[in-house]
Design a protein that fits this description.
Length: 425
């Protein structure tokens, strides 16, 4: 019996060892995809089959970081940064491409695959698979779309317009809610000047209970905003904000603000995909006309306020981290102030283990708009109007630990439903 058990144990140990042994050549590329932007990883694995995809960046010999930024036309600029590890240490490659606003996801993922193949080429040439490569080129007569770089090449002079309308309806016997949102925006972005204009309208209707116990309320909000900024140097920008709103929830019949601003980026703006540390100062007047009398016995007032904020963002191979801190106050009463902190981080601490955390906390003493009077139970339960509070916060965190098979080349979409999702509330 002991001999039989020993034999079974030996077979199990051999089987485990074989399962843990990579079946690919040592000289093969092992790629870790770090997508901090949209990536169709299943498609990438199907189209690029000449590498091994690993789940841990410490086991890769090619690390690929993918980030993106929005463009003036409403599209996105993707940057693919390749970094060699192990025998490829010191080898760096960077590829980028533009996704136009009207491009489909399929067009985007095809472009991503093409750029990934190009970026992997220098590493692939140093492997045994290089001898199996076949190089070909597109027909010179093939049509390729070009991106306008000067206003003379663009009949719209870089202006991009968006119209949107959406509605939401839900409910049951005891509760119903419906909302309608609509808006128009216009944006123009060049190297020297960026400006955006937005107009939005929202109506939200809610019902609680039925019959004699029924309680209903409606909140409406109309808003206008404009942001204009000029590029002064690769580190310095100047511009301003203009905003106006009418809001039932916030007790504003009119809230109008004109706020000049200046921003200094401690890193060049050209590096903002990977690192950004910006200090912004804003100061300007604000006219407030209220729907109901406030707790300070005001129906209208004209005030000046200023704010200073620091924003940081880093996207690196160890993960991503971003945060902001801001301080603002009114000049007529320095006790009317606000201090806020927000941040998010997703950090890989060691092999297979990552930790993410995010949150926001504000100490607020600047709520000039709070309605005078008694707070009812309905106000507390439905949150139909803004209530006085000297703080505001939210917080979330999570950890993830992955272990097991190193390689994950296989794509199996069965029972995935084609990638479509429906949400029920």
């Amino acid at each position: 019996m002991k001999t039989f058990l020993s034999l079974v144990l030996a077979l199990l140990l051999v089987n485990v060892c074989l399962a843990q042994s990579p079946t690919t050549k040592v000289d093969n590329l092992r790629v870790f995809l770090d997508c901090q932007a949209y990536c169709d990883t299943d498609y990438i694995k199907r189209e690029i089959t000449f590498v091994d995809y690993v789940n841990d960046r410490f086991q890769a010999n090619v690390y690929l970081l993918i980030t993106s930024q929005s463009t003036g036309s409403g599209g996105r600029e993707y940057k693919l940064q390749f970094e060699g590890q192990e025998k490829f240490a010191g080898m760096m490659e960077t590829k980028s491409y533009l996704r136009q606003a009207v491009a489909t996801d399929d067009e985007d993922r095809k472009e991503a695959v093409a750029k990934i193949k190009l970026g992997l080429m220098p590493y692939l040439l140093k492997t045994e698979k290089a001898k199996d490569m076949i190089i070909s080129f597109k027909d010179d007569n093939s049509n390729t779309s070009e991106i306008a770089t000067t206003s003379a090449e663009d009949p719209w002079n870089f202006w991009v317009f968006n119209l949107n309308l959406r509605g939401h309806f839900s409910g049951d016997r005891n509760y119903s809610s419906n909302s309608l949102n609509g808006g128009i925006s216009a944006n123009r972005v060049t190297d020297k000047l960026k400006t955006s204009i937005s107009i939005n309208a929202n109506e939200n209707n809610n019902r609680f209970g039925e019959g004699d116990e029924m309680f209903t309320y409606t909140n409406r909000r109309y808003s206008f905003s404009n942001t204009t900024v000029w590029s002064i140097t690769d580190h310095l920008s100047a511009g301003g904000f203009v905003s106006a709103q009418k809001s039932d929830y916030s007790n504003y019949d009119l809230d109008l603000a004109v706020t000049p601003a200046i921003e200094y980026n401690f890193f060049p703006y050209s590096e903002s995909n990977n690192r950004y540390v910006g200090l912004m100062y804003k100061v300007g007047p604000r006219y407030l006309n209220y729907i109901e009398e406030t707790i300070f016995s005001q129906m209208k007032e004209f005030r000046f306020q200023e704010s200073l904020s620091l924003d940081v963002s880093f996207n690196q191979k160890w993960g991503q981290i971003s945060g902001s801190t801001s301080f603002s106050h009114y000049f007529h009463d320095f006790s009317k102030k606000r201090l806020s902190f927000s941040g998010y981080g997703d950090i890989r601490l060691f092999k297979g283990f990552s930790f993410n955390i995010g949150g926001y906390y504000a100490i607020q003493r600047d709520q000039l708009n709070i309605i005078k009077g008694t707070v009812t139970d309905q106000d507390l339960l439905t949150r139909r109007r803004q209530l006085n509070s000297n703080y505001d916060f939210f917080f979330n965190f999570g950890i993830r630990y992955r272990f097991g098979s190193l390689f994950n080349n296989v794509v199996n979409p069965r029972f995935d439903g084609g990638g479509g999702m429906m949400y029920y509330y």
